[in-house]
Amino acid sequence: MDYRFVGKPVIRKDAIEKVTGQAKFGADIDFPGQLYGAVCRSPYPHARIISINTEKAKKLPGVRVIVTGKDCPLLYGQFIEDQPVIAFDKVRYQGEPVALVAAEDLQTAQEAVRLIEVEYEPLPVVNSIEEALSNKTLLHEDWSKYHVSAACHPIQNTNIGDTFTLRKGDVEQGFQESDLVIENSFSCSMLQHTTIEPHTATAQVNNATGEIIVYTPAQSPFTIRPILAKTFNVPLEKVRVICTEIGGAFGSKYEVRAEPLAIALARFTNGRPVKLQFSREEEFLASVARAPAQIQIKTGVKKDGTLVAQQVKVYWDTGAYVTTGPRVNYNAGFAACGPYKIPHAWVDGYCVMTNKSLGTAYRGFGVPEVTCAHEFQMDCIAKELGMDPLELRLKNALGEGDISVTGEVMKSIAVKECLEEAAKNVGWFDKPLNWTTEEGKLAGKGIACFCKLTGTPSTTSVILKLNEDGSLVIQYSGREMGQGLTTVIPQIAAESLGIDVEKINLAPVDTAYSPYDKTTTSSRSTFHGGNAVLMAAEQVKEQLLGLVAKHFGVSLDEMEYVDGLMRCKTDKSKAIHINEIEKSGILKEQPPVIGNGTFSTLDLYDKPDFHTRQSKRPTVMWMFGAQAAISEVDPATGQIRLKTIGAAHDVGFAINPLGCLQQIEGSIIMGLGHALLEEMIYEKGILKNGNMVDYKVPTFQDADVEMKISLVEKNHPDGPFGAKGIGEPGICPVAAAIVNSVNAACQANFNSIPIKPEHILLRGEG
Q1: If DSSP states are collapsed to H, E and C, what string results for 579-634?
Q2: I need a labelling partner for 703 at 20 to 30 A (CA). Which of 69, 230, 238, 651 fits?
Q3: What are 559-582's pLDDT values in tens digits?
Q4: Which of 252, 243, 315, 260 is nearest to 284 (CA)?
Q5: Which CATH architecture is the domain 31-123+199-277 placed in?
């Protein structure tokens, strides 16, 4: 079908505002009379707090408030309330807040922090997953003393904060029926989100009414609002979250970070706002990160390459507190066996507590990590069987009507198409798996595919309001984070109503006025928000037809709405186009034209069995894709250069093809960093490279990669115009494909990321 607005490469609606510096981010919020916050943080990763002396700091001119854990003995958490706003008995990671200061200026607040004297009793440090699993030192002695949600499953008297299980068939039987059984492990490093904008929040508390207002670049305002309300013991309606623009998130701004600290100070300032912004050092030490992961995988296969059984164990180093670990564990668990037909599949996932920064939500929610493991395993199997890695994947890839490891009959699935297209984009059959270039470089190719679910059930509501001048405002709480939401949602509204997309804008997000949206995560915003817009648009059409019918003095039954034109069926001269509605004057002195729509996946969802995770439909939408990579390795220096990436992602229907391509391009560079550069290094709980000099992220120099990207469009029956998500999927197979290409080039088996030059030079030694 030929559409007018969707399926077209529309320029981002927020582009000019952002490139000209007009966009207002969290750090840009300033109020007359505001105070500035700073945080006194623990230098120890694990210690008991003996005493805190704030007398010197209080005497510093300009200091207005100092708050310690004794003044604010409150716990919070989305899945388990294990995290103190300010540590009041002991600290569990380097950088944990032990006192807060509010002063007339930032420099004074920071100086006051330096004057606070804290006496600690150091405790044994749990620095690794292995140390945590020994349970010699427990970070949380008694899980039962916390409030735990039904979605979190800690194990008492252990450092395990959550567990996940998936069971299909009998893996032991499957291994016995296999001709070949291969066991491997794969490890992924801890990553910083390294967003351009650090965490920031400006809070104001009205002590007379109890109202809390917080300005923040939050990803998910309707997720953090109830957490803040419960933490500070106020009714939900007393908490107002006003969202600023977001200067990068990738999951880091999904949960509360700076917000409770700013509120804790603002409670004692007699109504004066408090602005708190993390430094880059604090971002590394005390914000959030992608959890390190250790993955064990065992696979049984027939001689012809048919997968029979697979057992996966995933251990997440979630850091000192559980935070969003259970959701990462859940999402990754469903994806841990990949998009393959496997009769017998078992998955176990564990969130393990250590004295490190908080391992939590990161783009893909664990799927890039498990993809590295199962795709590394597929290459190992192919090597053992003497098969082409692409052939092995195509033989086992899920297709229409196949049964997944969750027991679901798969529909709208294009794994094979993505694999074939990704391979084509790098000329897969033009060269062998590895070769030597004319310059003496070792070259190799690799391929990887993945599956990812979206969080289900969840709900999104929108409100469409037609202004008197014929422009349209969309009230929607989905958050623009660079994924193009402020362009895609107007495109969908424009297509449904026939109104020019230039006439449509999204209203700012404010929980006092904006309709409910569960969260801007899980690549769900186009799917959920788009469907809600289509529902709301039908109400707008109905109201407009009534107004036009009244204007022309005809019955509503005689009217029809065609591509934005409201016309009388029997007299086509009686017509008004929505783009010309202002000139008609029919919107004046009339009830407002407002439509609302709510899209909920509750009725499209079959809750998985707790013990097996088997379900007829565990998620409303699966996302699939594949990427192939060609890498070159200098055997003399160990330097690795990604030369080419061929990507193919099933987007269902590309609402904005340009935006889809941009998402995948950005994902490729981000994934390159994961595969070859990025790693937070801890020794005895102390971060050794918490700065942008020692922690390496890709630069423009690293971005010199040939990218060939294909958008595969296998329409989703429930998606708006058939669309699926693409915000996270682009990153899921990147590192896996690069690892496989480097292993092919070096004829090695590197089973951890990042792969660094020293790993190349030391291969084969020891």
Answers
A1: HHHHHHCCCCCCCCEEEEEEEECHHHCCCCCCCCCCCCCCCCCEEEEEEEEEEEEC
A2: 651
A3: 999 999 999 999 999 999 999 999
A4: 252
A5: Alpha-Beta Complex (3.90)
